[in-house]
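Notes taken during the Thursday session

The instructor put the following on the board and asked us to keep it in front of us for the whole hour. The protein is Carboxypeptidase-like protein. We were told not to look anything up and to reason only from what is written here. First, the residues (242 in total):
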Amino acid sequence: MKTNNTLLFVFFFLTQIIFGQNTAEKEIRGKITAESVAVEGINILNSTNQRITVSDRDGFFSLFAKEGDILVFSAVNLVTLRRKVTNGDFISNGIQIQMTTQSIPLKEIVIHDNSRVTAENLGIIPYGQKKYTPAERKLYTATSGGGIDGLLNTISGRKAMLKKEMVIEKKENSLSRLEVLFENKYYIETLKIPVDYIRGFQYYCIEDAGFSDALSTKNKTLAMFLIVSLAENYNKTIENEK
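Then, after some discussion, the predicted C-alpha cells were revealed:
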C-alpha cells in the first residue's frame, strides 16, 4: 500500500511539472504582410489569455503566449486569420504571417443628405469599437506587447514623445472644431473680443479642460455656456495688459 502511494505521489509530481512547462507563457514575435507589403495596425488577439497588441508600421508585433494558444489576426479589408501557436514558434527568429485582402460586396447603399458614410454604417466593422487617432495608435503600438520593445521605448523617451504628440493632436482637433463652431461676428458682437485678439482667444479657450472636453464631445450648449465666462476673463486680461 505504501508503494502504491509513493508511485501515485511521483506521478502527481511529474504531472505538475509537465503541466507547468506547458502553461508557461513566452514572448512570441512575428511580422505581418499582405500582398508582400508590411502592414500596420493589424489587431493580434491571443484568444486564450485575451492579450492583444497591434502591428507597428513595419508589420512587426510581439505578445506573450504558450504552445496551443490561438492567435487571431484581424483588420478592416483583410481576411481574419487564426493560427495555433506551436513550440517551433518560440525557437525561431519570428513567425511570418501572410494575410490576404477581402473584397466586400455592396449590393446597394442608400445615402441620405444628413448621413455619414463610415466603415460601421457599411457593415465592414462592428459598432462600438474604439477608434484610435494617429497619435494614439502610435502610442498604443509603442506600449503594447511588453517585452524588450516596451523597455527600450521607455529608456529612449519615445513614449514621452508620443504622449506629447497626443496632447498636441488633441489641441489641434479642438481648435479645428472651434473654428467652425463660431463665426467672427459672434466673437466681436456677442463676446466683445477685439478682432485682432480672436485667434489668441481661441487658443486661450482650448487650454481650458472643461471647454476642450465640451468640444470633443460635440456639446455645443455647454461650449456656448463656458465660452461666455472665458471671454469675460480674457477681456479682463487684455485690459490689464493695456
